[in-house]
Amino acid sequence: MKIFIDSADLDEIQQGYGWGVVDGVTTNPSLLKKAVEKRVGTGERVDLKEYISRILEVADGTPVSLEVTEVTGEKMIEQGKRLHELFNPIAGNVYIKIPVNPAFKEIDATHFDGIRAIRELTASGIPVNCTLIFTPEQAFLAAKAGAKFVSPFAGRIDDDLRKSAGLQFGKEDYYPAEGMEMDARLLEDNGIVSGIELVEQCVKIIEHYGFATEVLAASLRNPRQVRESALVGAHIATLPFGVIKDMLKHHKTYEGMELFTADIVPEYANLK
Ligand code: G3P
Fold it and tell me: Domains plus CATH for the chain?
């Protein structure tokens, strides 16, 4: 499973690549806003075009997803092409992120505009990461339209299930991959019992039909979700910087380090 960093923070991206474990970057408007505000907060003047260019250079040819902000088919296609034309020449690694459905509510007329945009951008040779996926059938349609990546949002499904059950939880709290029983009833969202199950069903459909699409597990907030994404065969997991760091932590590892370090005989340490 490839690991992407879910961040627009250049310092985090540089560190992640420096560790040699990062295979790509995903950004979205909220992550970019946060990263830029952090820099502006320290008195820095940020030129957004230059800032994004630096992220692309650090990623050095590995995929970097840039999201459109428009919400209709024509405009998403136009903006997607513009972003690709502007930034892809830097390192040849721009993926355009398109919401699977840009509508704000059920009666909106733009439901298929995301799918149309994926189809059109793909036909122009622009790779698309289809985002905001909450059902396997959304992933299926996005793959049919030609998306290179489909991004199921695992953590947000878990949030939804927990909220509907009236549970108290923190954003990073683990939610079981097999779902939770409440009042002898399994919590579910139209047959999906957890974010990881959503990822798993997307993987099954994509692989069953041999689509040239990779499932990019997104909205992962803790290492156990990363493990479970790998166990269900996600092709990629995109992770906040903090989750990448947390993946290496265990109190027995620290304890083992202390014990081994205490036992070092000087002769061994000085072997030449
Ligand atoms: O990769 C999608 C991600 O940025 C959303 O994460 O934690 O806000 O649901 P989250």
Answer: 2-269 (3.20.20.70)
